[in-house]
Amino acid sequence: MKKLLFSVLFLGMLNYLNAQQQKITTVQYAGSMGYLSLGVGITNKSGKVQHELLYGFVPKYYGGPLDKITYRLTYLPFEIKQKGKLSWRPINPIVFAAYNIGNQFSLEHSHKNYDQDYYWWSPALRFHVGANTAVFISGKKQTTMLYLEANTNDRYITTYWDNTGNMGLGDLFYMGLGVKFLFNE
Known about the structure:
The chain is mostly beta strands. The protein has a single domain, classed as Porin. The protein contains 2 helices and 9 strands.
């Protein structure tokens, strides 16, 4: 199952390369993809859709060691031009799937420790939704995108729903901060 998941994502990225406008290099701090994440990606011809594949890690002193692979899709619907080479994309929806690497993580629920209906989610795979806000600085050969991102996932939403009186919104959303370098063709 793991090999099938990665094969589908990899083939999808290769197929999409024919319609690329820009290549992306990403560095992100936090945001449910690891303590620090590094990735590559591409945009579509209009530049409004970004596909990325990222590797993230969590060091031992922050709860790790943990390695993650993430596929993220970002939609940039509109742009507000600023003076000079600056522009702002105030709200950009994102979806991503983050996979925890390691033998201790399974794509299937472990019914050995819990009842079948207790924890229904996979310990290895999280599906996230969120949004970011981004400032773009345009150059001749590359555009730099600085962004702040908030997201939640399937497990956090379910836990919040079941514990509404005991959890605040700070328990539901997680923040990330990053920079993307978009290389102009």
